[in-house]
């Protein structure tokens, strides 16, 4: 356990680091020697003069003395020193740590890990990353988020209160305005009456003597106000006067109430503003914490990808499986004694071939797919993956890749299942990654590449720059749901048939290549990945001599042979780690180049 560095020590003066490092003061320091007490033993560190390693340092704290420091192994660069007064190890602040050479060196660890993935991390971030542990960060983040939630609720409440008060003020102001208007009308009325009173009194004095009473005058005035030419009684005038007086009282009361309400509201607004300010500060702290967790997440995500890739590489970047076709009419010439070996039993000599996995005649589409499914994850992770079916005409390549004829989707093969798996993965990762997918479909016939997703099947050129190979103007159909794949496969297959008829050939005399591009955008880090899944149903591999083909068929067979031989040469070169891999010997291998070499699967 370490104690945190007390903040008040900062105010006692700057920490002197460089001056005392390695200086004589270190040994003469007041608290310099690491104690042999239980604390020191607990962390199993010996610090003594003469035995310096790069994890040792010296710190001079004004007012405290000179101390030796040490960086502990199990927390890569937490600098600590033993304070005899506290009888404890004190963790030095990160700002100080960053000044030391060893911390600078350790600080480069993060960028190394992240190199080529997310740009360089700042040294400070990287050090924080190494000091903090993921769970602690997550707990901190949760606490900060809860705080933020509570503050948001409080702000909402204050806003509601504020709105209520505003409406109250509006009501009171309206009432005030009405009362004011009524008061002014009444006052005007009274003034009119008072102006007319002497005239009325005079006229009454003329007829009934000079001692006219005030009550009579008021009555006359009231009568005049009523514009009925009738006289107004003193009582009525008094009533009127009292009414005005009480109204004035109400008016004053309302004014004071409004004033109180206004004061209350402005106090609440100030409170609200302060809350908002605090919330903003709290928001920036949370942002920082989120950024730290994001950094950790990046590292975790990268590590997961690297580990998964390592696992796939350990299983083999190139894997070969054999499926023996279920054929009852012909004499069986192949047997699968176990799940790795295939024995040819036709003819006189038996031969045994070994594969990564061999499937017997009763194998299902699902079983076959299960061995290739793990590499689909690699494609979603941004690697290039290719799956191809190779074999003689009629050996079951199309059945395995697409499905049974004429209704392949009744028991779909590797193609559809692989794309479905990609959809599943994308849906599973939707909270962290946004995926988009495109599909292209081409066939290679007599060394010409045809775009099968265009209405007017068109020949396309292959262009390569460095290790990048592109098909110029190829149709790329976006796919977002299962129906899109079926539609694209349907369109491509029927176009292939039409093209084959035009060329007076058979569709199985060409290589069918399905290219699925998967682009992923990490929603947390913004990192983009691009993986391709290439699915090939190769043309039949029979030898020209055996088929007895002539003329155009011979030329066709020669092209197929050439490309399949090139494919064999490429695999041989990759297996032997040769410097030169002859990708450009055929259109097929050239097109597949990004999906065969490097870290492709
Ligand atoms: N494992 C299997 N189970 C049942 N039927 C199969 C199996 N494999 C192939 N078939 C059937 O055998 C026939 C030939 O298979 P498919 O067309 O797949 O061979 P292919 O190797 O693609 O031939 P091509 O080179 O001519 O395209 C088809 O009718 C197919 O449905």
From TrEMBL:
It is found in: Cytoplasm, Cytoskeleton. GO terms for biological process: microtubule-based movement. SMART domains: KISc. It comes from the Eukaryota. Residues 131-175 form a coiled coil. Residues 317-601 form the Kinesin motor domain. This is Kinesin-like protein. Its main location: cytoplasm. GO terms for cellular component: microtubule. Residues 21-41 are annotated as: Disordered. ATP binds at residues 391-398. Keywords: ATP-binding, Coiled coil, Cytoplasm, Cytoskeleton, Microtubule, Motor protein, Nucleotide-binding. It comes from Macrostomum lignano. One of its GO terms (molecular function) is microtubule binding. Pfam families: Kinesin. The keyword Cytoplasm applies. SUPFAM superfamilies: P-loop containing nucleoside triphosphate hydrolases.
């Amino acid at each position: 356990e370490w104690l945190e560095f007390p903040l008040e020590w900062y105010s006692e003066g700057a920490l002197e680091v460089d001056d005392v490092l390695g200086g004589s003061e270190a040994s003469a320091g007041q608290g310099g020697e690491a104690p042999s007490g239980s604390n020191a033993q607990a962390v199993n560190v010996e610090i003594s003069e003469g035995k310096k390693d790069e994890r040792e340092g010296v710190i001079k704290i004004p007012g405290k003395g000179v101390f030796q420091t040490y960086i502990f192994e199990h927390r890569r660069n937490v600098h600590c020193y033993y304070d005899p007064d506290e009888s404890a190890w004190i963790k030095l602040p990160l700002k100080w740590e960053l000044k030391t050479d060893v911390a600078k060196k350790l600080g480069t660890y993060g960028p190394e890990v992240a190199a080529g993935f997310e740009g360089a991390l700042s040294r400070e971030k990287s050090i924080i990353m190494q000091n903090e542990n993921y769970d602690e960060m997550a707990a901190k983040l949760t606490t900060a988020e809860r705080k933020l939630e509570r503050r948001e609720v409080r702000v909402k409440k204050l806003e509601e209160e504020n709105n209520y008060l505003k409406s109250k003020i509006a009501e009171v102001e309206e009432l005030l305005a009405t009362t004011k208007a009524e008061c002014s009308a009444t006052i005007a009325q009274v003034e009119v009456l008072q102006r007319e009173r002497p005239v009325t009194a005079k006229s009454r004095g003329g007829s009934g003597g000079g001692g006219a009473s005030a009550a009579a005058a008021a009555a006359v005035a009231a009568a005049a106000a009523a514009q009925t030419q009738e006289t107004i009684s003193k009582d009525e005038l008094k009533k009127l006067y009292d009414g005005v007086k009480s109204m004035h009282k109400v008016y004053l009361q309302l004014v004071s109430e409004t004033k109180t309400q206004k004061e209350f509201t402005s106090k609440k607004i100030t409170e609200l503003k302060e809350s908002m300010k605090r919330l903003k500060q709290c928001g920036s702290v949370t942002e920082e914490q989120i950024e730290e967790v994001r950094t950790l997440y990046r590292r975790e995500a990268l590590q997961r990808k690297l580990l998964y890739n390592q696992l796939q590489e350990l299983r083999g970047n190139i894997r070969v499986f054999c499926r023996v076709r279920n054929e009852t009419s012909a004499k069986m010439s192949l047997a699968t004694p176990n799940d790795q070996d295939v024995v040819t039993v036709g003819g006189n000599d038996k031969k045994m071939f070994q594969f990564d996995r061999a499937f017997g005649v009763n194998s299902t589409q699902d079983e076959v797919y299960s061995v290739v499914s793990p590499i689909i994850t690699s494609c979603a992770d941004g690697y290039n993956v290719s799956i191809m079916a190779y074999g003689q005409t009629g050996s079951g390549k199309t059945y395995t890749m697409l499905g049974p004829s004429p209704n392949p989707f009744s028991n779909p093969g590797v193609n559809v299942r692989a794309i479905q798996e990609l959809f599943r993965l994308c849906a599973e990762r939707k909270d962290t990654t946004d995926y988009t997918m495109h599909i292209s479909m081409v066939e290679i016939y007599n060394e010409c590449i045809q775009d099968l997703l265009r209405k007017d099947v068109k020949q396309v050129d292959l262009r390569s720059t460095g290790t990048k190979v592109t098909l110029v103007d190829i149709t790329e159909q976006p796919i977002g749901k299962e129906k899109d794949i079926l539609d694209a496969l349907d369109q491509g297959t029927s176009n292939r048939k039409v093209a084959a008829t035009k060329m007076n050939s058979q569709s199985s005399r060409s290589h069918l290549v399905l290219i699925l591009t998967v682009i992923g955008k990490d929603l947390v880090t913004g990192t983009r990945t691009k993986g391709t899944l290439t699915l090939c149903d190769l043309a039949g591999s029979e030898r020209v001599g055996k088929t007895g083909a002539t003329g155009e068929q011979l030329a066709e067979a020669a092209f197929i042979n050439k490309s399949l031989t090139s494919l064999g040469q490429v695999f041989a070169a990759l297996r032997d780690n040769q410097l030169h891999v002859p990708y450009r010997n055929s259109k097929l291998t050239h097109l597949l180049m990004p999906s065969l070499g490097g870290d492709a699967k």
